[in-house]
Amino acid sequence: MDSQPKKKLLIINTAGSPLDTIPPEAELFPIESTTVHGYGAYQKLGFRYAINRGFDFVAVVHGKLHADLLPPVIEDRADAAFAANKRPGIFSRLQRRIVQSDLTGFQSRHRVYSTRALQRIPFDLNTNDSHFETEVAFQLIIAQQRIVEIGVPAPAIPGVSHVWNTAATTLKYAVQSRGIFYDRKFDCAAPGAAGNAHYTLKLGYKSPHSLTLSQIPSGSKVLELGCAGGYVGEKLLGKGCRVSGIDVFPLADGVVLDHFEEADLNNCTLPDARNFDFILMLDVIEHLHDPEVFMERMKAACARNPEVRLIISTGNVAFFIQRALLLFGQFNYGKRGILDRTHTRLFTFGSIGRLLNQSGFEVLGQDGIPAPFPLAFRNRRVSSTLLALNAFLIGLSRTLFSYQIYLVAKPRPSLEYVLLRHGRLKT
Predict the structure, then answer these.
(1) pLDDT at 220
(2) Domains of the chain (ranges plus CATH)?
């Protein structure tokens, strides 16, 4: 006798007509009408019911259960199975390009989910309307859940309002994935995506990383504050530099620097700058609790080495897209970009320059960085064209069209250093 418990399946029928067959291990969600609560709300109730009652799987059907959708999920070959769109229209093909997914469609009304996958997405924040499935599909993609498509018949979803809402949802997903907009429903990163893993090395185009690697001579002694995974330091090691790093998170697997300290820059002791030629703060200062206090500590650390060079990059909150969004009353933090929700301070060219000047540093040079289009677009020709256009616009107005600010500064000689040079202070 098989002692293994059977997989429990909850069926949510979104059609008015009853199902023809129900498997013996399945249960039909008890609320019969979608009109009382709304199409999306009905599915939310079913999802929550399935999770609370310990079901393993949820099948969303529209009058008929297609058994072919069950095996991939039940056998753990997928986290969700969708009915395939056999003839994707122009809109579906456009969605695929925007979302950068191989799915033929995102609106299928025949689906099977594992409740484990549903627990990893904030489906309760989704719409109560007919484009609920589209939002769930995007959430599963963001959470890196496995989705397969099976060729079973699926009804079309009629209505101009549905098409409009689906298009708006797709656009919202697209701009959030590029760090322009933020909606909590699409904040469902894959398991293990915490820490600084989303800070990637930006090479092959103008960026703080590429500029820094080109400007630091071989053999330099470098301190990188907020070094994330240590990828910049690893490149510098390849140039024969000696590199030390400090970050609140550990280095990425396989990355080893000459010295690394896992510490919070907000309250750790900064190393003496006499041991370094360059100090890097690439996309760091905007994360600090109190940049003014930190720069005073940096001034003290640099007190006896006015020759050290400080390289800083940060987002430019005066970027024209941010200005346009403000014009329409939009100000949204996100997972990354200028308005990364972990940023505690926002800067312009003027404000970051004043901070350095008032902290005892002299700005030697500043540059405008274009938006990282290669991270947002797979098409190399598109990203190259946008980079060239952005660079041209930066030449017209650096403050308006720079996505990021890049500065090189040095400490002004401190009173302590002047006294030391004149023999009035002991080393």
Answers:
(1) 96
(2) 9-186 (3.90.550.10), 208-421 (3.40.50.150)
